[in-house]
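Supplementary Note 3. Input sequence used for the single-chain structure prediction.
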Amino acid sequence: MQYLKKMNENEFNEYLLDKEKRFAETLAEHTFEVDTESAEVRAKKQLQGYLPNGFYTEQHEFFNIMMHDEQCGYVWIKVNESKKSAFLYEIYIVDEFRSNGIGTKVMEDIEEYLSKNEILFFKLHVFGTNHKAIKLYETLGFQIAGINMYKNL
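The predicted structure, written as discrete structure tokens, is reproduced below.
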């Protein structure tokens, strides 16, 4: 795992604050329904639902993406050993480090880590508007498992 460094609890707490902000922006952009709660409130609630025990939530693992001793992003995965599957909740690379091949290398590091732990299936979600990520995932051999669609009325 050349680019991945496991987070400690303090790093996780910093990550979670950043994640809440970015997740709220994503929800504001991609929620196609009327909701009385703000995107910020919904983001916080959803993250608490995914991570009821925070850093210590079972099966969830958190990594800093490192390049030359500089943090340039995060990875959050859930590993279900009994089902031999993992779900990528997030790979986030800071803007200034994007388009340098880091995403590909990090995904390869994750796959290597999962393979060593005898995980057979690696799943993720990507928004249809995230064309760069879709291209990356297709290049890495991911296949479409389902498609959600919407229409404004």
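Residues 40 and 106 are 29 Å apart (CA to CA). The mean pLDDT is 92.
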